[in-house]
Amino acid sequence: MATAYAPLADIRGHLRVAWYRTRIEPATLRRLMQRSDLQGWLQAGGHLLLYLATGALAFRLWADQAWVAFAFALFVHGTVASFTRGVAPHELAHGTVFRTKWLNHVFLYVYSLLSWWDPFDYGTSHTYHHRYTLYPAGDRENLLPLDPRVGGPWFLIQMFTLNLTGRPGRTFGKGGLISTIVIRVTTSRSWHGRSPTTCRSHARCGGRGGRCARPGSGSRPTRITNSTRR
Question: Domain extents for the chain?
Answer without folding.
Answer: 35-117, 118-143+165-230
